[in-house]
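Q: Here's a chain of 125 amino acids. Please give me its 3D structure as tokens.
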Amino acid sequence: MADESTEKKVPQGKSMYKYISEAWANSSETYVKALNQERKIQWRKEENFLRIEKPTRLDRARALGYKAKQGYVLVRAKVRKGAFKKRQIKSGRPRGRERSSSSSANPSRASPKRGPRRDTRTSRF
């Protein structure tokens, strides 16, 4: 028994997914950087949502629970960079209510005149 505990474990080979994850981790040193540049050029010409057959990063997909079996649908979607803000529409009908309407521009929409404000700091008692 003492011999078994002192034996050194022989390192096993890495799995295919480990090699893929290492290639993605060091993308500038491996083939992945050039491959991604080519893919991005092609993806820009494609639609916003596109059904794909296989995941782009197989190791990451498997870590998230992907299995190569029926019932899994893969879609590549374009995502805008930066904060999610809707683009302002320059023409067409206005969306929503008018934010700043001056009374001189449209007198029919002017707010009614109010009397002087009452001082709420003084007590009535």
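Q: Can you summarize the key feature?
A: The CA atoms of residues 37 and 43 lie 10 Å apart.
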